[in-house]
Protein 1
Amino acid sequence: MENIDLLYHARGESKFIDDLRLPSDALYAAIFYSSTGHGRILSLDLRDALLMPGVKAILTSKDIPGENQIGGVIADETLLAEDEVHYAGQPIALVVAESPECARKAVKKIKVLFDELPVVLDPREAFRKGSFIIPPRIFSMGNTSLAWDNCLVIVEGRAETGAQEHLYLETQGSVAYPTDSGSLKVTSSTQAPTAVQRAVSRVTGLPMNKIEVEASRLGGGFGGKEDQANSFAAMAALSALKLNRPVKLVLSRQEDLRITGKRHPYSSDFKLGLDSEGRILAYEVTFYQNAGASADLSPAILDRTLFHCTNSYFVPNVKATAYSLRTNLPPMTAFRGFGAPQGMFAIESAIFKAAEKMGVEPSYLQEKNLLKEGDAFPYGQSAEGCRAKESWLAALETFETGEIKNRIEKFNRENQFFKKGFAFMPICFGISFTNASMNQAGALVHIYSDGSIGISTAAVEMGQGVNMKLRQIASAIFQVSLDKIKIEPANTTRVANTSPTAASAAADLNGKALEKACNELLERLLNAAALKLKTEDKPVIINEEILLKEEKTGLKWEDLVKMAFDERMDLTSHAHHITPGIYFDKLLNQGRPFNYHVYGTGVVEVTLDCLRGTYTVDSLKAIHDSGKPLNPLIDRGQAEGAAIQGLGWLTMEEIAYASKGPLLSDSLSAYKVPDVYFSPGELDIRFLKASDNPRGIFNSKAIGEPPFMYAIGVFFALYNAIKEFRPEVRMDFTAPLTNERLLLALYSKEKNTVTA
Amino acid sequence: MYNPVIFICNGKEIRTSASPTLTLLDFIRRELFLTGTKEGCREGDCGACTVLIGAGSDDGSVSYSAVNSCLIPLGTLHGKHLLTIEGLPKDALSPFQQALIKEGGIQCGFCTPGLIMSVTGFLLSEKDLSIEHAIEAIAGNICRCTGYKSIKRALESFLCDSGINPEAGEKRMESLIENGFIPPYFRNIPELLRSIPPFAEDPEDTKLKPYFAGGTDIMVQKQGEATDINFHFLKWSEERVRVEDGFIVLDAALKVSSIMDSAVLKTCLPQLESCLGLFGSRQIRNQATLGGNLANASPIADLANIFLALDGRLTLQNGDQVREVPLRDFFLGYKRLSKTESERIVKLKLPVPESGFFFNFEKVSRRKHLDVASVNSSVYMKAIDGRVKFIHIAAGGVAPYPLYLKETSSFLEGKSLTSGIILEAALIAQSECSPISDIRGSEEYKRLLLRQLIFAHFMKFNPELIYSPEILFQAQAPSKIF
């Protein structure tokens, strides 16, 4: 099975935005952005910059012919700042010049004076000031206030998780070309061509039919290009429209780090109550989401936090409150997991603390409270096809966790300065856009007269292998070899009004639409074959041969297509798919928001160097329920990659901002992500056997996001290792657990309260 | 117009009058339209722009190094062979490319060409083709998609059955051609390189120009501006590390990788090679120089730290004038050196270690590899029957410049080592330093970490000295003392 994309990648022939050959009259844009977190613009002096040789124009908000607005969910975000800036990195002006260097040099010549205003970076401070993006969201089930009385153990605490930079290796970028009849063609490194089309339309004032948006492939997205590609495409489009020349805007790494939003930092308060058996009776949690300066996708991310606040556990009484808070940071945005990891980290912290208090292992409480078939989630849906316990038990057996425990105990007895720790991490992740209307997709299939096939959908290939999966689907239906099938770049003129490639759902949604379109064409072709063979029976295609009653007819795929063409048959089909049976009432916060859930259990093992405060992640293992994986190689790669990205989030990846707002970790020498040495020696993710999923395409399950959350176990594994060295240490649940936090925890003076 | 820079790119000669300070990455992508080489960070921290540079030697062989093309100015390419992803065999994928595809080691594809170039460099230049060395060779290549496991699988699967001649050199090269890792035109490269005339330096240009050694720092600091600066390019030293009059002598223009490979150092200071494995990445070590790391005077410079402890002495040269300065007196303040603008570091001399010496280097950074230290520290000592004959300790990241811990070292000299003495020494070290809170850690953390690293030195020297964690807790928490 050949994944054609990989062949081009391996030869360095794949074309990303910055690789496109441009016409000789192309210009290059660079962004002048705010250096302060909050301020009124007193003056903006462009004179010196305009005098720089090669500079063609400098555009500000005044040059926008349409609306200076790119907020998709809430209209609260300008493309270019007007009178005020609300975060450091906020775009103020665009320099368009003959070369990128020239544009960047001119950017340095722009002078701006700010009247500095108070900067708020902390979501709790924003809460006290009442700076809400949306009104509070509350999910509840049962009655927590009544439940506390029945609890033998109640623990309370705080959990904090930090921001995370996507670090897609290809930075944000776009090229816009003026085309015939006052139209624009925009190529963008975006996960959401339709969202780009809307944003460009809004900013330029052109109707959507005059804007063609194409995304051929991305050098990584991870959510960072779901909403935030819009502004850069709109800037390129605005420049192209104004100057009537092609304009390229590709961010440097530093610009990308400074300007774009990250995973939302959360600060959360939890309260968990359990009975004497360790059954969780009640859970209250309050999430303070640091949304940054504008809404972006924060409201949807906030909801997904709530949807996942009880992770893989059944909790009869839940009250979960979530606040999305406006601060002076870049607008935080989608990132693999989309709010769920933050929610899961809070309940895992609560369980860890409860286990500590009860003198049991956290895994005892985790296992005891796993969801069972039919158990209710706090939002009305109940667990169907629940594989929480199944994956847990499979992990115990497959990875011989009893052995791991014995081995670790022995190691810890024999070593004074090195301690091992391990932790379990069960996951449960809902699949669907929680905004029901987004669960739709279209597919356009052409069979060309030579028998080759071209497929267009809204799925954007960004490394997750969706192109290959789509080819497999078409190949299975038509029974033709993969090399006959080409996946076209996502393009708004071929498939319109599409949802972003996000929520792990691209293969599901686009695959289902494709299945439908292929089946329609197959039906036509087989009818044509029956006519030609003069039979009432239905022929079938196997391996490009037309068979009738299991006998070869001599007719091949190419013959059939040629014949259908000669018969003037339509060899093109378009189909539309919607996920059936999902709905959600946003007032009651009840419904059936998810098509299905993905389950799994991870086990993480670490060794802590208690002298230096450094560690190695020895292993991350998981039993993952992927249904019947459509492509096990791709799915394994997704699972492994997600898990390592998660390990980074919880350990070394730390975003730091100066008190006035500018990003301090604004280079790859300051912001570190996992490298080959960090990657655990044992990274072993296996698929749960004998699983299926009638709701997924060909019984598969979505794979992109869920495995990210196995990594949460690393925090608790490290905490356990600390306690092996100093049993009395009680550490805050603050991630990332950097080397610094570890060492300070290991050698804290005050024995019981470590603010690490 | 500039004097032409001539080199071989893949199989073809390139002659260009572009500015010699133009970043090689930009030249490759924009002038040669070879867009397989990617820009990921422009600071040598991701490896997406990795290319190979082959330098011919008198014996006709060409030695290849993987480098970050974002940190290389075009001018240094003159007379060299540049290999980009496009220069690999066209007809069929190499066994490594095939293995990557088979094992799922490619996802978005953006880091892939750089990764493949690093592995090709490994195959061309590494003596020991073990999986460990292969991993070391790709440690400077960041992949955000795969989590690396599938890449490691690919390395393992092709290395176990590659048909590559383990003997480095010409036979290796032949076997790489035969097995489809590199194209046959590699056979012609030595001849093509010989035909390139030496670079025509402009004789009239006598202006004082800044010296440019490896460029791994200046190309980052002067991003975009470097093309406007007229550098005086220094050539990487081919001179071997040697012993003269009781001193190990290292040319300042030695690459870090050449220091690691030095036979003399492997004998006299066998610990050094693994210490330097924590310096940058393979690509950076193939570029960064000893002199550059010292002249840079970064407070956390690893080489400065190591050679402070090893009692290094610098030779500075200005025309005919030559003087020697102990490294300990070289660093005066933040980025301030005991060196005039026209003086150049030419040599570093280290006393040949006495038998029975102990050396140790500790470095803690956010990520173990390819990262800047929060704190680093080196110790060089000799003890006879537990009594310290001499000791030198250096610490980085805890002062505005690479710090020699003078008080701590002199306190320990002549002492009989006990856990109590080491505790005391650690306290002195903490009082000698003045860390600041920054992106690499808080002041409190750095103080604590320095103490821990001093313990680590002595634990390695003699584990009995720090026989129980209780000893560590006896030392007071640093924030309470100072």
Protein 2
Amino acid sequence: MNRMARETVSPRPRPASRAGLIGTPFEARLRALSTAEDWMDWAGCLSPRALGAVETEYFAIRNQSTLFDVSPMRKYRVTGPDAARVMDRLVTRDVSRLAPGRVAYVLWCDEDGMVIDDGTLFRLGADDFRLCCQERQLAWLNDIAWGFDATIADETDDVAALALQGPTSHAVLEAAGLGLPALRPFGMAEPEPGLTVSRTGFTGDLGYELWVRPEGALALWDRLWAAGVDLGLRAIGYAAVDIARIEAGFIAAGAEFQPIHRALRPSRGRTPFELGLGHLVDLAKPHFNGRRALVRHAKDGPRRSLVMLDIEGTKPAAGAMIYRRGRHEVGHATSAVWAPTAKRNIAFAEIEARAALSAGLRAEIYTLKEGRWERTMTRATVTDRGVFRPPRARATPPGRF
Amino acid sequence: MAFDSARNLSAVVIGAGLNGLTAAATLAGRGARVTVVEKGEGPGGLMTGAGTGELGQFVWNLHPDALSEFGVSPADLGLGPALPTVALSPDGRHVVIEGGAARFADGAAHPDAAAYRALRWRVARFAAVLAPLVRMAPPRLGVGLMNRAGLPELLGLARLGLDIRRLARDDRREFLRVILSNAADLVLDAMPDGPLAASLAFDAVLGSRTGPRAPGTVLTLIYRHLQGGERYRPEGGMAVLAGRLARAAEARGAAIRYGAEAAGLVVEGDRVRGLRLASGEVIGAGLVLSSLGALPTLRLAGATHFDAEACRRIRQVRAEGTAGRLDLCLSAMPRLEGLPATLHRARLLLAPSVAALEAAFDPVKYGAVPGAPAAEILIEPEGAGARLSAIVQHLPRAPDGGWTTEAREGVIGSVVAALAVHAPGLPDLVREARLTTPAEIEAATGAPGGHWHHAEFAADQLLTLRPVNGMARYATGLPGLWLCGAAAHPGGDVTGLPGRNAALAALGAGVRA
Amino acid sequence: MGRAAKFDAIVAGGGHNGLTAACYLARAGLRTLVVEKNDWLGGAAVSRELHEGWTYSNCSYVCSLLRPEVVRDLDLPRHGLQVIPYTGGTTFTRDGDYFAYHSDRHALEREIARLSPRDVEGYERFALAVMRQCRFIRPLLLRTPPDPVAPGPRDVAELVYLLRRFHDLGPRETGEAMRFWTASVGDYLDGFIEHPLIKAHLAGSGIIGTGLGVYSPGTAYVLLHHYMGEVDGAIGAWGFARGGMGAVSGALASAFRAAGGEIVTGAGVERILVENGRAVGVALDNGDEYRAPIVASGMDVKRTYLGHVEPQHLPTDFLAAVRRFKIRGSSGKINIALDAMPRFLAAPEGASFLSGDLHVSESLAELERAYDDWKAGRWSALPYLDMLIPSRIDPTMAPPGKHMMTLFVQYAPYDLARDGTRDPAHWDEAARRGFADAVFDRIEAVSPGFRDLILHAEVRTPVDLEREVGLTEGNIFQGELTFDQLLFNRPVPGYADYRSPVKGLYLVGSSAHPGGGVMAAPGANAAREILRDAGRRCRAERAFRAA
């Protein structure tokens, strides 16, 4: 009686989409090296929080060199005659000043000037870009590119990536036969077909990121690993990187700002100015997404400021509320750490814009001391971002260590 | 004074439809130098098919505020007396509606006449409440109502509140109940289904891609009755009316250029500096008012000047026209049974019931042609014979298989057959038949999707959401570019209000800038 | 003349809202009686053993909207209520594919990306937008709607509260809220998601129980009615009441008895007694008569005022408004005892998403056609199905190895068309079989052999739901959830505060704000108003202020 409904179906069941975390192309090596078995979820990928002891991994960043698997980063390829216009429409910086073969740290905003995400933009050619970031941006890039002649491809699963960071990182590259002595910071090169190396990173130290097809991932790892034996190369997890990036003054999505597309409360959005990244906003270039709102924000001034606080004592101020004159709540710490190399107790904090200029800030720190919580109101002062950024990070050619 | 500085303004208005002309007259009347560019060869836009042939056939809802911008009074327009409406009935007992009163064509009293009158009056009272709202930019909700800048907004809202308060308490309750309700329930709660009930439901869906059961259609019905709901047939047709208005705009100082197609905007320093024509000529202007739909305007300006969110919203505006036009050349005036000759030139409605109207819409949702389409018909003598024109409500924009000859003949055949029930001689009188589909309307006029209102007239695309959230107050975001067509608040029909409101908004901002 | 007794309050109808109101009244110290026409309690929240060994939640079938405030106030878990969350769900297509809604976030993202990579973000945007609306609207569920037309001081305070909430949203979000309230679920989804199957999966909740189609304006809001659910604090989560939906009523009844309440079953209210414009009690159809100065009706607004109050006690315009109230039967229900777990060809063995809600759909257009069938007085040729197999999670529902399926069917008309006339009497045995066949055909297409597993099936048309549960036209929400019947318009303008023109007579069922679903909010809100009139405070009052 119901012909349409009775049509038969294909007899082959389709397996369910996979749940949980999926390994990256480096999974085999990471699993073999992990003694901590401390894994985390990075964009649905199995990613080490630590492979061994976090302290050892951190000091390897600052003293030797480290390998960190950054394959879970989202990677998008934008190509076509309008690719440069599309990228200029997306990001707040002037892409026309980004030469092929160069990389830029960029942010992009929604129509209200609130930051959607930050990332690195690689200009692979005149009409060829790669954008690396934390959040999914496929639909957004398509929205941005509507009306333009450009093609957007999600390369996340097609490109494996390793961060090689630390003072001996160039020495490791050299030992592996991949030396790039002339490569300047934010430059990139293709020392071998199918392998891109960029002088970029998230640690504030000398470092490189290597981009390769997944098939070549393990071979690349093994090659670097062998080359690094005498140079103290260690594989590390995110916990060590997190310490280094706070020390270097780099913000992280989800900590220092809530990507606006993920904010349930629209008021959680932040402008680049509020994040202290106004220098990355080029209001003089033609219209880009959020420009008109940013012009207004630039005029009105920020509501809040993201600052780096130098806090007395040694107890990290994670989650601390910040007070002015001990009474008025003015904000909170977004990321906090005892900076092991700079030997300072620092924290990113989001505080009311007025308070950023005032003295007398206090961080309310709770510490668990052998079963008992103690609360201290600790003196905090606004300090320059990046308490540890050694000159070796920028030296070209890079030193051996 | 604010308006004096308009003297230094130069403005371009895109499109010489009613809204474009009204915008031009409004601007010119306040001293701005205005050029209207019109792609077609004559004025009138959708009213006249941009000079290619009449698409509209009646004037209703033309707003006095818009008219006063032309410096003309309704009397100057040759609109004549309000036309009676005849709701054709399958049983031959046609219903005549005149001045809010309904009776049978044979003169007998209609059993639902009192209910009909009460409902018409109620709708008219509700329309009076909404009247101030259509004369201004939609109120900005949720912002600064509590601070000084928001004061005018607050006052506007307070005024609306007061107007609602002016209604009797029962009316107020009813207003707040039905405002987002559907026309079918509203009408059928008052009277049984039939041609008389359908005449109101027809008003609620005319030109829209919707059936009378869709929530929100009451709002359309109220909107249609802002000026009393009476129809007028301009002497000589819509083209004559459009010509009169165009001349009035010119008399105010606006220059109208026909055959001039807008091809792009000149933008410098994030500000409109002029309009480029297809000929390559550039007309310098600090203000450009576009009476095109939202998407054509966006394409004209270039997506590059708009945030991606705005582009997405505009892309998602629903504008799929489902009203077409049928023209029949007849060798003689047809004779309609059961209808006195005096009423042959009335506005004839072919919609036997609310249910039939809903059923006529259903196939259109899936790209099919309804078997019994509803239509609004006008028969006028022409030469030795006559011309029958029908707005056929509910035709698919792109039927499965396309608008083939068969599909067209199907529509023509079903309308003629439905009329032949009342006018048995009609099929033999037809000398020539022409169907203008929504797609052809789009091609002729540029109306998105061939939609009468440039954007579906539904609650989620009205007021602060028309055409899209964030652009409801005529400003597009690109300084100097304004929307002044039916896609803007308050919407479609021959009102002239979007053009007038947009021009006033543009002048206000132009002065400040 | 039968028995007679005096109480402080009488609740007519032992459905979940009636029982909720009764609990609050009893706990506030009122001597309260609940009268129920059926031999069992629960109204549309029941568990019944109609086939030996199987428990059917034979009306409502999931527990998501039940207000946690009410559960906590009335201590329902102590009285046996246990809600087991389930997650996941699937929509099967005729061509042998399916879209699985996984509880695991990554699996869901991968599943969406499989069909349409861009829709992963589209779905995120959609979920975020709906959550924003939920955050805005949820607090309103346990508040009495203000009267904007003739506001008293409390109405003014409430209106200011509402305006303030809108104001806090900012202009864009206010616009988005307006769009959400006025858009159709189809158009709303079109704005976020590209793939037809994903849209079809998500749209179902916008039409369940309504006389509207996926492209009818206002259905996006209905979506909210289903998304607003929360189980154990997890917003949007759905659950089964362990032991079937009767467990909700059972816990309420137990809480009510514990508070000293009395219950009479098997005798329905014939007449609500009114003297001098005041409710004074009820006369039952068995001849018993109970008197109380407070009468609360859990029946729908039409049944209450048109069926059980003599018209001379009610103003004519009030009666007209009640008659105008739209209660449209649009759904059917089939409860099935299954010999084994059905096999869905497309799904892998043991797929976890089979424990969630299962559907067979293709596209929004197909759902819209199902609506067109209903408008014409036919059951949908290709209906929207909401199938659940609670026995996969709840072992109490069926014998080991066997299963119980609850099958909700949208659409089925109340007044079936036949030979050009519409009449509920057309629902004869043949029609019921035809209706069930349309449904089984649809399932059989994706689960061949399904029919052979059926040990017993209870087919419930709108007419059956009306006859047994007392819901007018079998409408599960006791009235359409359209704007003209929501908030201050529900049930009729001017009477959204649960009161009626008759002093002491209140409406406590889903016909009142905030509407249907096993939410218990109308009952709790009504109890608050009743106690306010009675000069007593109750815990709902506190919940109200905390909200």
